[in-house]
């Protein structure tokens, strides 16, 4: 049974020990709540682990929290990976609930940006007062398996810092994709998609 079917506490010790220090590093370096989400076959995301080392006022979420896959920052990344025709994307969008809904045109533009960048943002639309960056872990076929999000209170981090968080989440997602599913390390998901699944070398400084 693979990681898709198991919540993090049920993963093998080596896998859990591998992922959690990376979540802690992200939280410590970006002063944000870092959440790990399992993407289910029923197109839901389920919170399976969270880490916060924030030194200021912080937000929290409960393990087991569930959301539709297309909503929020993770949802934009998920939609980018699904690469649906615009009319089908709108069908999914129309079923979503947001506290401050974006227009469909704005959402679709964010999805296109996520396809290019490999990460996405939600600035107070899913939850008013929260800013979220996210990226997705895939298997070798490009199937979304896990989502990683960084969540902070609005105004707590500058846009430049949030942008760096998004890039770091993308790189961490690539690393976890390799560690758990054997996806070539250091290849951006957006580059892999554009290459039709063929590995595209990308240098990455340092090591984990």
Short description:
With 208 residues, the protein is an alpha+beta fold.
Detailed description of the structure:
The chain has helices at 13-30, 72-82, 86-94, 104-117, 159-181, 189-194, and strands at 33-39, 44-52, 66-68, 120-123, 130-138, 144-153. β1 (33-39) and β2 form a beta hairpin. It has six helices and six strands, in the order αβββαααβββαα. It has a six-stranded antiparallel β-sheet with strand order 3-2-1-6-5-4, with helices on both faces. The two termini are 26 Å apart. The protein is an alpha+beta fold. α2 (72-82) crosses α4 (104-117). The protein has one domain: GAF domain (Beta-Lactamase, 2-Layer Sandwich). 39% of the residues lie in helices and 20% in strands.
**Shape by Cα distribution:** globular
Write the H/E string, N to C. Answer: HEEEHHHEEEHH
Spatial order of the strands forming the largest sheet: 3-2-1-6-5-4
Largest sheet: 6 strands, antiparallel
User: Can you count the helices?
Assistant: 6
CATH class: Alpha Beta
Strand tally: 6
Helix content: 25-40%
Distance from N terminus to C terminus (CA atoms, Å) equals 26 Å
Strand content: 15-25%
**Unreliable sequence segments:** 1-11, 192-208
Specify Rg, calculated over alpha carbons. 16 Å
Q: Which CATH architecture would you pick?
A: 2-Layer Sandwich
CATH fold-type name:
Beta-Lactamase
Structural class: alpha+beta
CATH superfamily: GAF domain
- Average pLDDT across residues? 83
Tally of individual domains: 1
């Amino acid at each position: 049974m693979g990681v898709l079917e198991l919540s993090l506490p049920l993963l093998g010790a080596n896998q859990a020990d591998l992922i959690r220090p990376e979540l802690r590093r992200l939280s410590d370096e970006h002063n944000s709540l870092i959440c790990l989400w399992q993407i289910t076959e029923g197109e839901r995301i389920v919170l399976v682990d969270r880490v916060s080392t924030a030194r200021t006022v912080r937000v929290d979420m409960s393990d087991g929290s569930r959301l539709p896959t297309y909503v929020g920052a993770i949802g934009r990344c998920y939609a980018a990976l699904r690469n649906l025709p615009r009319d089908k994307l709108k069908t999914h969008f129309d079923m979503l609930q947001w506290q401050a809904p974006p227009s469909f045109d704005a959402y679709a533009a964010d999805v296109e940006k996520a396809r290019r960048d490999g990460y996405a943002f939600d600035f107070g639309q899913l939850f008013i007062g929260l800013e979220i960056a996210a990226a997705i872990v895939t298997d070798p076929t490009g199937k979304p398996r896990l989502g990683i999000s960084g969540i902070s209170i609005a105004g707590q981090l500058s846009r430049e810092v949030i942008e760096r968080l998004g890039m770091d989440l993308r790189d961490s997602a690539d690393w976890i994709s390799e560690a758990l599913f054997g996806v070539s390390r250091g290849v951006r998901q957006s580059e892999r998609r554009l290459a039709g699944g063929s590995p595209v070398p990308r240098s990455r400084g340092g090591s984990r």
